């Protein structure tokens, strides 16, 4: 019944997004877009990543069959488009096969499996399709933010960011000085965050096929909940980011003509009384909180129990993502602080749910929510005070984040099962 209720809620949410996307943007929503990609060239996205997640429930023989079917279907589509001289945008050639393979496994589960085996296979298919649908849902959310929020609050956030020393401006200058190699590397890392998440998730789910069950908690759950809840904050606190509000913008966006001033990254913005400013109807208002930071934090947390190489990779991805979000001017420093608090609060809530709403977990979720809300209220209503008293407000912002980090480390260490201490043998009398 729980899975059925969750399915009904998810379907209703997707239908609502479909209607909203067509009403405000005049474009198909996530459901129509996903259905369209059964035949038409798919947009670049985690289609094969979703297939990889689905295959954690399959045996090795079944995995080879599913992968072979996916690749074979893609080859057929590519050859058909070539024969019909269909123009395909760059990067849109492959992916249909992965979607067909996942749907084929769903049909196979319904028609050829029963009981727990059917449920397990359907869970695997649902996991893969959720990852794919999450990307489409995110695109729709971003469209909605740009169409329904004509003004942005960047001057408030930029003013509050003086409390942290305008880290985006500093990181932007450092990235400019390091040259194109570091810029391309960070750009690749920033764009391929989902790949890192899939690698960590596959490690966590590596024993599903053998144990015939999913672990109680894994990264995909946290990843999807962050992506579901985060855009709601975008609607409450619309911000486009330093490179758009104070810089040259980027290709395909309004650019400098919509900017408050062309200052980023070489000239920090002056401390003036902030006010909402209008912006174009294209650029997503996806800054507050930084979901890239929230996702990278979740990857870091879930990589801690992996082998040394995975732990190093999780740390590297977190540091590189933070550097990219600031260095490319996509986020302010205070966005990153909010993103860390948001991620830890979501992670704690999910783990507390698994434990039957443990009291300490509920308290930390409430505290993390209060800290997150206080940060947003401060950015919106106290930016001038934060900017004019940086030696007080800056440490308070950082300490509020560290308090949530400390609380998370404290309760999760208490939740970890304690290893049984080895019993010391009793001394035995010896014959003399």
Question: How would you explain this protein's 3D organization?
Answer:
With about 425 residues, this protein is mainly α. It is built from 19 helices and two strands. Helix 17 packs antiparallel against helix 19. The N and C termini lie far apart (about 70 Å). The relative contact order is 0.10. The model has no long low-confidence stretch (mean pLDDT about 90).
Identify the strand order in the major beta sheet.
1-2
What does the largest sheet look like? 2 strands, antiparallel
Work out the radius of gyration. 24 Å
The tally of helices reads 19
Mean pLDDT: 89
What general form does the structure show?
globular
How much strand content do the residues show? Answer: under 5%
Element string (H = helix, E = strand):
HHHHHHEHHHHHHHEHHHHHH
Q: Give the N-to-C terminal Cα separation.
A: 71 Å
Overall strand count? 2
Give the low-confidence spans.
none
Assign a percent range to the helix content: 55-70%
Structural category? mainly alpha
Observed structural traits:
432 residues; mainly alpha; two-stranded antiparallel sheet; 19 helices; 2 strands; globular
Provide a concise account of the structure shown.
The chain is an all-alpha fold and 432 residues long.
Summarize the SSE layout with pairings.
Layout: H1 2-24, H2 30-36, H3 47-54, H4 60-83, H5 96-112, H6 115-148, E1 151-152, H7 154-160, H8 167-178, H9 180-191, H10 193-204, H11 208-211, H12 219-236, H13 242-245, E2 277-278, H14 291-302, H15 308-327, H16 333-354, H17 359-381, H18 383-388, H19 390-415
């Amino acid at each position: 019944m729980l899975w059925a209720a969750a399915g009904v809620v998810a379907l209703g949410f997707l239908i609502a997004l479909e209607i909203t996307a067509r009403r405000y943007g005049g474009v198909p929503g996530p459901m129509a877009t996903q259905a369209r990609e059964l035949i038409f060239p798919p947009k670049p996205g985690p289609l094969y990543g979703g297939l990889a997640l689905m295959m954690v429930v399959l045996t090795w023989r079944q995995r080879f069959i599913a992968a072979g079917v996916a690749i074979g279907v893609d080859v057929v589509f590519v050859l058909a488009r070539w024969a019909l001289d269909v123009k395909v945008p760059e990067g849109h050639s492959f992916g249909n096969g992965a979607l067909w393979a996942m749907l084929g496994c769903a049909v196979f589960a319904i028609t050829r499996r029963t009981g727990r085996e059917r449920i397990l296979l359907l869970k695997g298919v649902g996991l893969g399709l959720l990852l794919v649908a999450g990307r489409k849902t995110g695109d729709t959310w971003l469209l909605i933010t740009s169409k329904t929020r004509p003004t942005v609050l960047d001057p408030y956030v930029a003013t509050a960011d003086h409390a942290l020393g305008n880290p985006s401006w500093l990181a932007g200058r450092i990235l400019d000085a390091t040259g194109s190699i570091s810029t391309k590397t960070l750009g690749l890392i920033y764009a391929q965050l989902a790949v890192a998440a899939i690698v960590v998730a596959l490690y966590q789910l590596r024993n599903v096929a053998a144990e015939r069950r999913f672990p109680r908690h894994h990264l995909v759950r946290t990843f999807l909940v962050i992506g579901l809840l985060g855009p709601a904050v975008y609607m409450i606190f619309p911000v486009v980011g330093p490179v758009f509000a104070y810089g040259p913008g980027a290709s395909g966006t309004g650019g400098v003509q919509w900017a408050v001033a062309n200052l980023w990254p070489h000239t920090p913005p002056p401390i003036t009384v902030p006010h909402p400013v209008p912006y174009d109807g294209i650029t997503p208002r996806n800054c507050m909180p930084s979901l890239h930071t929230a996702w990278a934090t979740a990857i870091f947390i879930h990589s801690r129990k992996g082998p040394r190489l995975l732990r190093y990779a999780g740390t590297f991805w977190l540091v590189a993502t933070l550097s990219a979000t600031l260095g490319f001017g996509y986020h302010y420093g205070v966005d990153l602080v909010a993103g860390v608090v948001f991620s830890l609060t979501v992670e704690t809530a999910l783990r507390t749910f698994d434990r039957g709403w443990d009291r300490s977990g509920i308290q930390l979720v409430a505290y993390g929510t209060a800290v997150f809300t206080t940060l947003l209220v401060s950015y919106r209503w106290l930016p001038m005070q934060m900017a004019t008293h940086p030696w007080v407000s800056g440490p308070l912002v950082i300490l509020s984040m560290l308090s949530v980090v400390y609380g998370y480390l404290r309760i999760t260490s208490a939740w970890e099962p304690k290893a049984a201490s080895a019993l010391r043998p009793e001394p035995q009398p010896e014959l003399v």
